[in-house]
Amino acid sequence: MTMPVERTRCVIQTGDFLRELSKSQQIPEPFRIEAARLLRHYPEPRLLLHAAWLDEVIHSTEPGDPRRELAISGYPELFSSSLDE
Known about the structure:
Layout lengths: L3 H20 L5 H11 L5 H16 L5 H8 L12
Helix pairs in contact: 1-2, 1-3, 3-4
């Protein structure tokens, strides 16, 4: 089972890898272009870490706790359940 810390690290490392691919002259141009295209909407590490911190607050507090309510109100919408635009 993947732990949240492993998933977070992997997503951040994937972004780093795509950035390296998009800039490397040793990679064929179509792959560099595709890596750059994917990065346009890829979340920055600070946004991922912020959302992860909010997740931790939400899951470690009880309903009605002001910290939980504040975390929920500040939670960024990162993903959609639909792939349609």
